Amino acid sequence: MNVLNAPLRRIAAFQETDRMLRDGRGPVQLAGCVESQKVQVMHEAGGGAARLVVTSDEKGARTLYEDWKFFSPDVYLFPEKDLLFYQADVRSDHLTKDRIRTIRALTEALERGTDIAVITTMYGAMNILPDPETFRKARIPLSEGDTVEPEALVRLLVSAGYTRTARVENPGEFAFHGSILDLFDLTEDLPVRIEFWDDEIDTIRTFSPESQITIERKTETVIYPASELFPDTSSFREARQAILEEGKKALEAFKARQQWDEGASMQQLLRRAEDALDARDLSALESYLPYFYRRQATILDYFPENAVRVLEEPSRLEESGQFAETEYTQSFGMRLLKGLALPGRPGC
Q1: pLDDT at site 248
Q2: Within the chain, where are the H helices?
Q3: pTM of the predicted model over 0.90
Q4: pLDDT band at residue 84 under the 50/70/90 scheme
Q5: Overall fold of domain 2-134+296-337
Q6: What pLDDT digit, counting tens, does each position of 210-227 carry?
């Protein structure tokens, strides 16, 4: 790799850019870079550090991601949630898995002090998330020999977005039979089987979800949330009250204006929200995230101050951001008027 970088490091413009970034001076604008050299410059400038790359569209982000892997395996794609369709309650478990896996990798790399790069789009950079401290506190570390009340652990898993099933086969599921807890962390490739001796963790093993046969013994594991929404009991109770009260006020306003069709839509929205709240279906409630967390963030807030932030073609990013904001504002406004959204649910 040094052979490839040597010619780059002889270029005066790159030397100045690299020096300014290492000294914490910026922003730095670099123009005239050919397409084939762009990723190399993004990867090398500023030395080893956490870095965030924001590009204008999903196709460009995926291309950068694939090219980056030639220079380093420590790169992750943070896929965007479409601001309009996600607010219309279209969700993807695969999308949530990729996003949480990236947040996990970023969190752990920063704790270890190792290099990492995250690539996303302007839409992805605008998506609302729980703040970093909330995410870190939501992790559940487990080790052999730990004393853990199994039923309390089950309640934590439900709060973290995991689904209880009879048999664990897919990420985001868990099963508890007797003294054995099977769990498939959303961010892992294999599930784990945790055996208890009373309230003590006796063994932790990975196993095959197809054959259910043990693969490898582990001394510890860390469980990450299976949803971007993982409220504690108090936050869930407060959010439930706020959602239902706001919905009832909106419904009464439609009735007072004799907007019967809009009122019917709001009634249906409230019914779906109440069903999801009763079932604690966090995946169905993710678009209500602003109700659950007073402190909210974006992926930008997960990076430290000394991280390198790369904006690819800033003018295009500005256009993309303005378009997204205008499109979302107009769509959200129409949904409010039609009784298809609640006023307190503006999160991207």
Answers
A1: 94
A2: 2-9, 12-22, 35-44, 58-68, 83-87, 93-112, 122-126, 132-137, 150-159, 233-256, 260-279, 282-285, 289-292, 314-337
A3: no
A4: low
A5: Rossmann fold (3.40.50)
A6: 999 999 999 999 999 999
Phi, psi of 254 (to 5 degrees): -65, -40
Domain limits of the chain?
2-134+296-337, 140-223, 233-292
CB-based contacts of 59, cutoff 8 Å, min separation 6: none
What CATH number labels 140-223?
A: 3.30.2060.10
Residue 228 C-beta-side C-alpha neighbours within 13 Å: 32
**Rounded Cα gap, residues 110 and 120, in angstroms:** 18
Contact assessment for residue 81 and residue 27, using Cβ atoms and an 8 Å cutoff: no
Query: Do 107 and 266 contact (CB within 8 A), yes or no?
Result: no
pLDDT tens profile 237-254: 999 999 999 999 999 999
d(CA 77, CA 84): 21
Look over the chain and give the mean of its residue pLDDT values, rounded to a whole number: 89
Give which of 119, 104, 108, 98 is closest to 51, Cα–Cα. Answer: 119
Lowest model confidence (mean pLDDT) among 90-104, 197-211, 272-286? 90-104
